[in-house]
Amino acid sequence: MELQKSLQNYFDELTSSSPTPGGGNVAALCGVLASSLGEMVCNLTIGKKKYLDFETDAKELLTKFESFKKDFLTLAERDNEAFDRVMDAFKLSKKTEAQKAFRNSAIDHATLEAALVPEEVIIKCKELLPHLEKIAEKGNQNSLSDSGVAISLTAAAAEGAFLNVAINCSGLSNQVTAKEFLKKSEFIYHEIKEKSAGLISQIIKRMTTK
Fold first, then answer.
1. Which fold, 22-208?
2. pTM of the model
């Protein structure tokens, strides 16, 4: 997602017949939104007398969330670029056997690269989750629901990214390598899914139990 564009421009591109931006880009954008909400809760915590004991940690978390936001934005843009390279590879000539072989190799290489980007999104989501857990537990409790939404978005980002790993792996010629790659991403994704579900359950309990 290019920051100089308005949200309306982004939505127009998303709803168009162009394949980019697509699901992988949106998955990374969910990571951006989750990180931004983490920043917001930090800012609503810092300076409050009730949370003075946590202020130093909140300031450190704020810096980390800012960094995560930048990383996810970069991954969103890289997802577009990776898919464009796949499409470019499919446009290569296939008139001769040599051209066919080169085209197939280029498609395979570009497809693998396109799988690596969402894998990075999944890994980044796993790194983000403990920080969101901390701000949910120790940060401004009036914003507990916002921390919960951030955790939900992180889970959505990981799931969306895993779907993109899966579809790219399905297109690789070497399915042995593809299955090994997919298995690694799937393991991390399930870790995130289980962890985030537990955190959301705890947050809902804290907000509904009097």
1. Four Helix Bundle (Hemerythrin (Met), subunit A) (1.20.120)
2. 0.93
